[in-house]
Amino acid sequence: MKSKKLIGITLMGITLASSMSFSFAEYNPNKVINEPITTLSIKQQDSFKKTHINLIINNKALNHEETKVYMKKNGVTMLPLRLIVETLGYQLKWNAENREIEITKGAHWIMVKIDKDQYTFGRMSPIALGTAPEIKDGKTYVPLNFITDILKIDVIRDETGTIHINNKKNSIENLSILETTGKIVEIQKINERTRILVKGKQLKNVGYDIIALNITKDTKIKNPIDNTLVALKDLKKGDEIRVFYEPILTRSFPPIGTAQTIEVLKDIAVKDGKITDIRIDEKTSKVLDR
């Protein structure tokens, strides 16, 4: 009996040793493999599939039960709209009849419509993001690029899958100053304030051609040639101006904003072109363009 056990153990040892030697013999770090290489793909789950995707806004983690996030079949990440915009300080109003959601914060106005890939900011033409808002479990969800492309807020997804939303650096409150060149078509006096209506050449690209701009005590009116200040009373209907204004506009028509700087171009030819040469002598400077 002992001899049979000894033979069995010996055979197992030989088999194990041979398999180990085979494995070691197969490993060669310099060997070129021509066969296809198969990699293991781990599919990311979402909150509705029990694996939670953490959501952090301005470095504050939100309640797990409220921050359910899911991914569509095409890989688009969908986020809960109300929770996010209200955490960021926006107000949300639901229109059940039209299935529309109005989002406001100060002068900022955004409109989204359920099942329509149309997102409207201010008086701008609707923007398509590739994915429409939709309702899931009684809540409205929008694609992740709604945060980056409409609200203009930073979004980072770290190596754990956690989504970080941070509006401390970039947001629609920090958009760059806008500019247009055109004629003053009307000057209004409203409660001791002055408002000018400008028919701008560049405005047609954003859906309107007239803009109303309030002039405040901080608005600078100047001659762009020598930077001398121009008195408000010297502005006249028909004057050609270049105006720089803040990007925050009302949803009225025409939209109303605030002028930051007004350059009076009266008696100044404004010409588009490219500087090709600058020649300077003792008496004059000459700029050549084309």
Automatic annotation (TrEMBL):
Domain Copper amine oxidase-like N-terminal, residue spans:
57-163
Q: Name one Pfam family in it.
A: Cu_amine_oxidN1
For this protein, the record's InterPro entries field holds: Cu_amine_oxidase-like_N, Mao_N_sf
Q: Name the domain of life.
A: Bacteria
Give the signal peptide, or none: 1-25
Alphabetical keyword list: Signal
Q: What is this protein called?
A: Copper amine oxidase N-terminal domain-containing protein
Q: Which organism is this entry from?
A: Caminicella sporogenes DSM 14501
